[in-house]
């Protein structure tokens, strides 16, 4: 049974949790169809040494929906407003999937507010064929044809279907608001190239992590982003797909803990 974490809300209606103290202030942004609970293992591990804030995307969990068109820059503006509403100075940001695109946008547009950035299972410059496929899914979802089982086939291997991670993600997909899902997926489908040329200008320590079995957020994408970023590093976790933060929680949490200690080059 899904255990719901207690949230607070910003004045604009963004739901979040705030755990731990000391160390870096880390903000976690989940992917399409998920909510704060998908970060459970990372919140538990990282809040021991850091202040960890995790947020529900607009129209997900307990956050109000976006009141602007479903485009990636509007999600980035929403996140930037949340950082300001919480009175945060400079933060470290880690995002998964759609959250990774938002984190990339924040890194590109708010460099003075960024200490470091981590993209988990982030997409980067999709091929024309991949872009066509994901935009077709976005059109289908936006039309109201929302198959809550279909993502599971892409995100998990057959031998993971009896796992606790699979059950968690399945339950979260069952609960997500269709309108919130459709809006976020539209931005996800059309947003991979919006900030993709910004990485050479991102001076903060940058981690790009994915699973070697993720066919949409590939190891090659992570490695290409790391090469394009002055302080970028790629980590590829073998034997895992798109939901690597819940299927390989210890490895992901350790990689994030290590990233939070990187010292910026001078």
Can you walk through the features of this model?
Pfam families: Abhydrolase_6. One of its GO terms (molecular function) is hydrolase activity. This is Alpha/beta fold hydrolase. Keywords: Hydrolase. This protein is α/β, with parallel strands linked by helices and 266 residues long. The protein has a single domain, classed as Alpha/Beta hydrolase fold, catalytic domain (Rossmann fold, 3-Layer(aba) Sandwich), CATH 3.40.50.1820. Helix content is 39%, strand content 16%. It has an eight-stranded mixed sheet. The termini are far apart. 48% of the residues are buried.
What oligomeric state do the depicted chains represent? single chain
For the termini, the CA-CA separation is: 48 Å
Question: Order of strands across the biggest sheet?
Answer: 1-2-4-3-5-6-7-8
Unreliably modeled segments = none
- Radius of gyration equals 17 Å
CATH topology: Rossmann fold
What is the total tally of β strands? Answer: 8
Question: What order do the helices and strands follow?
Answer: EEEHEHEHEHHHHEHEHH
Count of helical stretches: 10
CATH architecture type: 3-Layer(aba) Sandwich
